[in-house]
Amino acid sequence: MEKRPKKDLIWINALGLGETLSLTLFLEELSQVFSDHTLLITSSTLQSKEALENIPLNSNIIHQFAPVDNQYVLNRFLDYWKPKIALFSELDIWPLRTRKVKEKKIPLLLINARMNDRKKISRRRLGKLFSEPLKEFDHIFLQDQSSKSHFIDFGINEDKITVNGPLKLAGTIFPDTSAIEERLKILFKGKLIFVAASLHVSEENEILEAYKTTKSNLPNLVLIMIPRSLERSKNTIKKAMRFSKSVTVRNNYSDLPKEDTEILVINRVGELGLWYKMAFISFIGNSLNFKEIKEGKNPFEALQASSIVIHGPKMLEPGYDKLSSIGISEIVENKYDISKKVIKYSVAKRREEKIKRGLDYIKRNKVVAYKLIGHILEIYDNREAK
């Protein structure tokens, strides 16, 4: 266990890679407001630990693995770190963890939470294992209005709930990839880069077919495929090889595309920002209208990286569905639509206005993080006053 700094400490607990990365901008801003404190971020996966190590966060932010839900471990963790306040950013709530925090009289907040109909059904099956720990929170900050009624159904007093908005809307802090970016710019000189990210397995053929069609119009086009599930990436590679004889796979940091690479399959985590920076256009996956697809993935990192964003119609998370209606992203239904958009936006002049709108939108959305920090500061000061 890392040596505890002498400063007062704020504990932020996330779950896996996605939840942790969505908090990075919020963490950076929080660390400036609480510059005389240490921020301890805990997570449950090795991937999130490795990703945070590569992100240039303020020096008063440290990472540890989250304590397991064991009485001895939790007592030892809380007695050692002595947090003044605890912020949990996950819906997988561990009963003992919340109880122990409250026993120590530490203010406990649930932040950036969301509960759609599907999650409500799954949590309902847990009964009191979910509802009782939920009641331990002093305040709950939600991503969207529809989640509010679900939390109330679990017995949460409306006075304890604030709809603050999803932190993802404000963007993230990308890892420092400047060294590899320079090498890629040389390797990709004269190429047009099309990224297809967070791909559901059912979308891969659509992307590859679209690439094949578009390649005849844009011979310098390179496709970068980033599967949603790395466990299935071997099948992604096999599919790609049916469409091109020049497929490269990036398994390790040192694996780079070759001069003749036509399709690059990314078999690593935590690099979305890097590839979005390389791309003139990005398809955000898990969004085409296939039965097995439920909702789209985060489009804001691509916007932040100045890439044109296209996606399927199933962008159903809070804030995602608005992007096309306000002219920032475009909806594609199939391989034909995808090909048309890639060709259209291969012309730099056509990209300028949309990229500007996307960057302005991300900048405006930082208010979501600022509002949440304002609420936390008020709760923290009230704790001090008691």
Structure, explained:
This protein is of the alpha/beta class. It has 2 domains: about 10-170 and about 365-385, 3-Deoxy-D-manno-octulosonic-acid transferase, N-terminal domain (Rossmann fold, 3-Layer(aba) Sandwich), CATH 3.40.50.11720; about 180-365, Rossmann fold (3-Layer(aba) Sandwich), CATH 3.40.50. The protein has 17 helices and 14 strands. The protein has helices spanning about 15-20, 25-35, 45-55, 70-80, 95-105, 115-125, 130-135, 145-155, 180-185, 205-215, 235-245, 270-280, 300-305, 320-325, 335-345, 350-365, 365-385; strands at about 10-15, 40-45, 60-65, 85-90, 110-115, 140, 160-165, 190-200, 220-225, 245-250, 265, 280-285, 310, 330. It has a 7-stranded parallel beta sheet with strand order 3-2-1-4-5-6-7. Strand 12 (about 280-285), helix 13 and strand 13 (about 310) form a beta-alpha-beta unit. Helix 5 (about 95-105) packs parallel to helix 7 and helix 10 crosses helix 15. The chain is globular, with a radius of gyration of 22 Å. The mean pLDDT is about 95.
